[in-house]
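ARCHIVE CARD
CATEGORY: sequence design from structure
SOURCE FIELD: tokenized fold
FIELD CONTENT:
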């Protein structure tokens, strides 16, 4: 079962991963309540909320499996694409308001994004390439029925 976490919790996890911390180490520091080690490894956020959460079991599950972000904003999508996959707006894909176009994903990354983003975001215009896919992520309010 896919667990749901907040955008903030996703930022905290993905910021550690993007800097190279593996899942086992993240879990160890959380279980040991070692905020100092987490914050020294990645000082872009205060990781206290990972330890002080009332949803520790959910966080642990999110570390080792796919998760869904409960509510995700335009900037949330943009930031997670960067943190989780190293993708930059304007360099790797095009961004216009609440439309992200021609995002290059591996097949596994596409599956992760499909699971991760909330239902108000839709993945559309999937084009299969030799090494993966190009896809658009569009806010549901911007989809025009033809």
């Amino acid at each position: 079962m896919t667990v749901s976490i907040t955008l903030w919790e996703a930022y905290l996890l993905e910021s550690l991963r993007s800097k190279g911390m593996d899942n086992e180490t993240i879990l160890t520091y959380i279980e040991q309540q070692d905020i100092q080690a987490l914050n020294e490894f990645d000082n872009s956020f205060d990781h206290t909320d990972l330890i002080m959460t009332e949803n520790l079991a959910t966080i642990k599950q999110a570390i080792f499996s796919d998760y869904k972000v409960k509510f995700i904003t335009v900037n949330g999508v943009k930031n997670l694409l960067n943190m989780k996959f190293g993708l930059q707006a304007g360099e790797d894909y095009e961004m216009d308001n609440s439309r992200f176009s021609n995002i290059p994903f591996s097949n596994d990354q596409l599956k992760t994004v499909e699971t991760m983003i909330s239902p108000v975001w839709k993945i559309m215009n999937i084009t299969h390439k030799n090494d993966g896919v190009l896809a658009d992520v569009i806010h549901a309010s911007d989809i025009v029925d033809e």
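CARD ANNOTATION: The chain has seven helices and six strands. The mean pLDDT is 92.
SHELF: design records, drawer C
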